[in-house]
Amino acid sequence: MDSGRILIVEDDVQLRNLLALAVRRLGGHVHAVGDGLTAMQLLQERDYAVVILDLRMPLLNGYDVVVSLRDLKRRPAVIVATGVSEHRHGELDPAIVTAMVRKPFDLELLAATAVETARSFQRASELSESGVRRRLATQPSAGAEAR
Fold it and tell me: How far apart are the first and last CA of the chain?
């Protein structure tokens, strides 16, 4: 499983493409979509380590995406990127939203942060999986206990 993926959810095509390019240049595995509905479909199909999420988008806005993320078994780190100062920011669940950046932001810095977060997520996931495999290997099998 490639758990180091980054999902960019941004309706501004130019910004979405620039951010995806910056992430790829740093070696990140990225998918980029323009609306929250497509993002939720991908999030239900695949694991992502990081989601960079705009709040104002068509079909399903970022606020609704954050609410929907509560139901995911494996939640990604969510970085909200917004250009609008709204009173609704208090509605964003801090257990889901890892960070918030205001547009305009430093594109390279955001990309580097997302890639490093994804790599950390992947390392932690690999360590966790190897620990489970190690514990299973040291446990006696059911047949051995019956003897």
Answer: 37
List pLDDT tens digits, range 118-142: 888 777 777 766 655 555 566 655 5
Q: Is 117 exposed, middle or buried (CB count within 10 Å of its CB: 0-12, 13-18, 19+)?
A: buried
Which two three-digit tokens encode residue 116? 């490093």
Beta bridge partners of 99: 79
Which amino acid is it at 23? V
Collect all residues with Cβ–Cβ distance below 8 Å to 123 and sequence separation of at least 6: none
Backbone angles phi, psi at 101, to 5 degrees: -125, 145
Residues of the chain with pLDDT under 50: 1-3, 146-147
Residues 6 or more apart whose CB falls under 8 angstroms from that of 17 comprise: 32
Helix (H, G, I), strand (E, B) or coil at 9: strand
What pTM does this model have? 0.79
Superfamily of domain 5-146 in the CATH hierarchy: Response regulator (3.40.50.2300)
